[in-house]
Each structure stands twice: as structure tokens, then as C-alpha cells.
Design brief:
Blueprint: H1 13-22, H2 28-36, H3 59-71, H4 76-85, H5 87-93, H6 106-116, H7 122-133, E1 142-151, H8 159-177, H9 179-185, H10 188-195, H11 208-229, H12 242-254, E2 255-259, E3 265-269, E4 293-297, E5 301-313, H13 319-330, E6 346-353, H14 359-371, E7 378-380, H15 388-396, E8 400-402, H16 411-415, E9 425-427, E10 432-434, E11 443-449, E12 452-458, H17 461-465, H18 470-473, E13 482-485, H19 488-500, H20 504-510, H21 515-527, H22 537-561, H23 572-581
Parallel strand pairs: 1-7, 7-8
Antiparallel strand pairs: 1-5, 2-3, 4-5, 5-6, 9-10, 11-12, 12-13
Helix pairs in contact: 1-5, 2-5, 3-4, 3-22, 4-5, 8-9, 8-11, 8-12, 11-12, 13-21, 13-23, 15-19, 21-22
Amino acid sequence: MSLRPMGLPPVPEQTVRVARAAFPQGSLAIRVRDRLGEVFTDEPFAEAFGVRGAPGLSPGMLSLVTVLQFAENLTDRQAAAMAIRAIDWKYALGLELTDTGFDHSVLPRFRARLVGNGMERVVFDRLLEYCVDAGLVAAGGKQRTDSTHVVSAVRDLNRSELAGESVRAALEALSVAAPDWLARAVDVPEFAHRYGPRVDSWKLPGSKVKRDQLSQVYGQDALRLCRAVWSPDAPAWLREIGAVDIMRQVLVQTYTVRTSSRGKEVVSKREADEDGVPPGHLRLASPYDTDARWSAKGDDLFWLGYKVHLTESCDNTPPEAEAEAEAEAEAEVEVEAEVRGRPNLITDVTTTLSTVPDVKATAPIQQQLADRGLPPAEHYLDSGYPSAELIETARSRGTVMVTPVLLDRSAQAKSHAGYDKSAFRIDWKARRVRCPQGNTSTGWHPVRQRERDAIVVEFAKTDCQACPVRPECTSARRGNRMLTLYPEHLHTVLAAARAEQKTKTWKDKYALRAGVEGTINQALDITGIRRARYRGLPKVRLQHAFSATAINVVRLDAHWTEHPLDRSRTSNLTRLSYRLTA
């Protein structure tokens, strides 16, 4: 398929007349075409297409279709149908009224081409460039970030289902790629009986003993199939089939192979306490989405999937609207601040594995903002994002992180009765620490902990054991107090941040962060951002990039029309109640 850059075609006169008559006040699609037509051009996609072959549909047009699809939360079939029957969509795409549109299968092929060429964020970046040029967003302002969970597009599997389904997926792939070899390698009728229908816990035996036996059979079949594929007589290319390699990984992660006292080979399921299991960020959860991971947040939220971080500008939202947004977001009610001045726009969207902690996403988010020329002067985040190193690095680049740093989590600090770190006097030049009772440390040991520089300070056992307030200071069996400190410059940064966040001025300022909860709620309501449409991290990243683009388009439309988003779901009395309790 080749590309001949043309961009969006001119809107036919008949389409213009009918669209203006049908939508005298305009519509989202019409205003997007009128104001943002220059965003949806073909040139940014040139590298994804060849110069030879039959010309394909305009990628600029397909990207506009995809943005409108996400703005209305449509499936591929529904989006293709809208291009045929919706007059305002025909206007946006520059189509004749009699145009028959395109087949819905064009859209997944277009997305696959974008993912294959690393162009997941092209449209999002193009729209941001337009907004920067139009003065709607700029560097040096205020921005806020928060994350939410994303449920994968595959079903949840327990360990037995995962083992059986991975064998089934490998057999399905081998049945297509090498049917003759598979017929010679395994008993096809037996395997077809066991793995023909999908492996489902509803169809497993009711007895726990029989379920354990079946799970063992899954492991034995996987081992037998792996040995057949890796045998010298098997074609080497069989090992490169993705489903086969996934089955091998699941086998290693789920089972152990031992030799019994009688010399018999025994395949058994791994036990976490005895055999060990892989850490969560490495453990496969589905043979059909190898990037999805199980994760947890608190005691109530467990999910299989990903995590998305949204960053938005927040220079122009009134404080009273922020308070209402926080209260209504907690009640899971859709809310949007009134449009005043410049709109709040999403400036970055980052998708990670669900097991990646928020603190690991802070530096990439700030770097991506800097690469776009949109570094904030103040960056509002919750307590999961900061660390002393990140706060110092951001400040050196001109960004102040307005975020609550984690307080001292030692037993003494939690009890509010003992001597926490703040009770000790540190002499950095002399490399000594004096305790509240006047004793001086005897050890100062620079170390590396969790890939970070730290200092371990030790007090003499003789001083601690004879100390009259030892129970208030340490309960360690070794009998003496030890402190772990950051290097001096980071310790100073952390201490200053902890002191500042206790002030009322800081708390009033930090209230601005709450509005991002409403943005996540809006993304959930409009684009369904918490449920992955596609499988695999690259495609989920593409989904979230288009979701963020769609949200920005909706907000720009509200800004252009000077019409706040609909608040009809919340009564005036309820909003008053939220305002009074905020």
C-alpha cells in the first residue's frame, strides 16, 4: 500500500448545504473539521506507508475517524457506519452524500500500522502543537497528574486455567502452521478432546482432587509438547512461534519437574513457599496478552491489566470548581469545571504495566512534557509520585513538585511517642549524629540500598543498652539504634518538604490537584479508558493516546461554544451540598 499525501479533501458543496441545514448550530464533528482540519494531515504518517502499490485511504482521514470514534465511544463497525449515514461525519471527512464509506476492517489495520511504526501518539502530539500555537496551553504554568487502573481485554484466568489455555493456544497455532508435524508428534484426538473447547473453570471437575490432577495433566502435556518442539528432528522455526514460546514460559513459571525416589518423572504445580514463583512484574497472566499483569491497590482493588497516567493543564479552573470536582469525583459523579479563559487540556498520557509504581512514571512524564516544550512551573501530584531525588531533579529544571512526600514511617514516628529521626541532630561535616540523650554515633556507613545512595548511622550497644529511655528509642534485638539517612542534599530537600506540607498555605495550594480526578472520570465516561479495547501494551498505549486526544477535542469544543459540559446528572441541591462539605 502506498501513500500520496493529500490530507482531508475539500467538503463538497452539496454536503456543506445539507450539513448546515441539518445542524444550524453546528456539531462536534463539524467544528472539528472547521477548526482542526490542519491537524489531520497525511505527512506525519509518510514513514508508515510505502511509495509503491495501490494507494490506500488517507491516514489523516482515518485518524480523524478514530478521534471521533473515541469521542463517541464507538466500535469499529459503528464508526464505519457513521461515516456512511451521519451527515456531520461526512462533512468532517469531506465525503459526498452518496459516498459508501469504507469497511470497518480498515480501522484495525490502520491502528496496527501505527503501532508497528511507533506512531501511537502522532495525532495527540499534532493536536497539542496546534493548541500551543493557538495559545491555549503553554510552558511554565500549572499541571497535575494522576493515574487509574485499566482492565485488560482478556478474561481473568487462575493458574490451572492459564496452564491449560496456554497449551490450547500453542496447539491452535501449530495446527495451522505445521499440521502434519503435529499429527506425528502428539495424539491429536486425545488433545482435541481435552483442548478443543476453551479451558474454563465452570467446566472443570467439581472435586479439588480431580482439579489438581487435571492441572497436573496440563503441565505434563505442556512438557511433552515442548520436548517435541525442541527435539533435534523438529523444524527449528517451530520454536519461534509466539504461542509456543508463551506455553514454555507458563510451564516454567507454573510447574516444577522432579525425579521421584523410584526414578519416575513428576510434574507438579509450584508452591510459593516451597518452590517459589516469579515476581508479579514477570509473571504471565494470559497467553493472549503477555503484557497484562495482576496488580492491587489497597485492600479492595485487584485487576489484571495496565495503568494509565493523565497529565493536564490547570491554570484556569476556579478554586470553588476544584472543591466541587473533588467532592463529586469521590462520589463517582461526572463533573466538569466551567470553561473560563483557556481550557484545561491533557498534555501527556503515559501507559505502563500495572505493576509499575507511580514513582517510576514521574521522571518519564516530566521528560515527555519537556520534550514537547510544555514543562510546568508547578506540577501537582499525589504521594505515590515523589521521591527526594525526583523533587531535587525537577527543581533543578525549573519545576516545583507540589506533592505530599511520605512521612517518616518508622515505628517511633507512627506511635508519636518515641524518638523519630527528627529528634536526632546530624553533623554532616563531622559525619556524626547526636541522639536526644547526648550520645554520639560510632558508625557512619555510606551504602547502596535499592540502587540509591544512603547512609547507615549506628550507635554503640553499650550506650543504648544503658540508656534509660531505650524502649522509646528502639526495640531492635541487636540492642542499639540505627538510622538510615539520605545524602545531605536529599535529606535537606525531604525535611523541607515535610515541614512545608504541614502548613495551611501548602494544603490550600495542594487542593488544586483534586480536579484531575474529574478528568479521569470524564475519560471514563466518554472513552471508557479503564477498559482496554485491544491486547498488548503498544495497542493499549495507542488507545489511550486517542482517548486523550478525544477528551481534548471535547474540551476544545466546549471552549469554542462557551458552553460548559452537561451537568444534568447532578442536581443543584447536590452540588450545593458538595460545596458546603468540601
